[in-house]
Amino acid sequence: MPSSTRLDHWLDIFQSSGCRLTPARLAVLEVVANSSTVLSPMQIFLAARNRAPRLGLVSVYRTLEILENLKLIQRVHQPDGCQGFINAASGHQHLLICVNCGRAVYFEGDDVTELAESLKEKFGFHILDHWLQFEGICRDCQSKNPSDPEKP
Amino acid sequence: MPSSTRLDHWLDIFQSSGCRLTPARLAVLEVVANSSTVLSPMQIFLAARNRAPRLGLVSVYRTLEILENLKLIQRVHQPDGCQGFINAASGHQHLLICVNCGRAVYFEGDDVTELAESLKEKFGFHILDHWLQFEGICRDCQSKNPSDPEKP
DNA sequence: GTAACTGCAAACGCTTTGCACCAAG
DNA sequence: CTTGGTGCAAAGCGTTTGCAGTTAC
After folding, report:
1. Which residue of A2, A102, A110, A112 is most buried, as measured by CB atoms within 10 A?
2. What is the tens place of the pLDDT at every residue in A14-68?
3. Residue A152: predicted pLDDT
4. CA distance B77 to A29
5. What residue in A sits closest to B117 (Cα-Cα)?
6. CA distance B73 to B27
7. B24 CB contact with strand D at below 7 Å
């Protein structure tokens, strides 16, 4: 899905779920919808403040909470701490993340549902959710200086 | 591996890596080595304080850091926040966690390495690490009151 | 007009650090 | 004896909350 279409889609869902569209929220939505990398609340704040100079960090947190509830973004857990967010591909949570630049790629991995089924039988667990994440270095970062961070 | 053997194993590695064995550290090691559930630093602190009454929370953090570096425990990321720790099965990071009681089960999932290989070809990523985690309700918790927490 | 939303500042909780004392080896 | 480890207290940091003013609808 192209970024512009995604933003329209988000605005649609956002408004029809009863949320008011304000400059602060629009700025956050634009930043997150147009990014294909994992972003921290602070990164989102800094980027969104260019579009809405009076923006406060608090509004970023509150908007992210709404977006997470609407399933428009998903939380990404990283080796160190964990408050990264990325726009959520429909239904999938299988991510490939570059530890150098933060770029993220969704991929298909339907064999996971088979695995879930066998776990259910084997251990008697009722499976609610799963999480598959790969970390590595993307092609671009491999060809550059490995210690050159390229966060957007 | 039985818990007692694991503790011995840990003490072995711990000491031969140059770390001194103190009452505080022993208490933390005993608690974590003998548990098969995901534990937060605070839970570990409370349990370990029974064995070493003068224990400080700070020592728990410091000991966990050492254990993580020695790969004896692994960090578990949970939907909400993420500072859970569990003793690490050798080489495997595939976990099945009960969201009710915290019990964790390691399982085999070697198909993940195949998947990693295909991702490498498809997207050009150099894969460094992966993470597969299932969340659900274990058999015991299914048969009990679902809202009855049973944290150890 | 009104309820939802805002930014600010302060509170909060978890984690880390500085330090003087202590004990493992 | 020496160096690494301890607990305490305080600092640090990211996140959340209370609030009075503001704005989308």
Report:
1. A102
2. 999 999 999 999 999 999 999 988 899 999 999 999 999 999 999 999 999 999 9
3. 40
4. 26
5. A134
6. 15
7. yes
* Nucleotide nearest residue A80, measured CA to C1': C15
CA of A20 to C1' of D24 (A): 7
Answer whether any strand C atom is within 7 A of the Cβ of B78. no
Segment A83-90 shows an average pLDDT of 73
Structural domains in chain B plus CATH codes: 3-144 (1.10.10.10)
User: In whole angstroms, what is the distance from residue B137 CA to residue A131 CA?
Assistant: 15
* Measured distance CA(A23)–CA(B116) in Å, rounded: 42
How far apart are alpha carbons B109 and B133 in whole angstroms?
11
Helix (H) / strand (E) element for B130: namely strand B126-137
Top mean pLDDT of A70-79, B13-22, B109-118 is at: B13-22
Q: What is the pLDDT of residues B96-138, one digit of tens each?
A: 888 778 788 888 766 677 778 888 888 999 988 787 888 888 8
Helix (H) or strand (E) holding A46: helix A41-49
Q: Residues A65, A10: contact at Cβ < 8 Å? A: no
Cβ burial, residue A85 (10 Å; 0-12/13-18/19+): buried
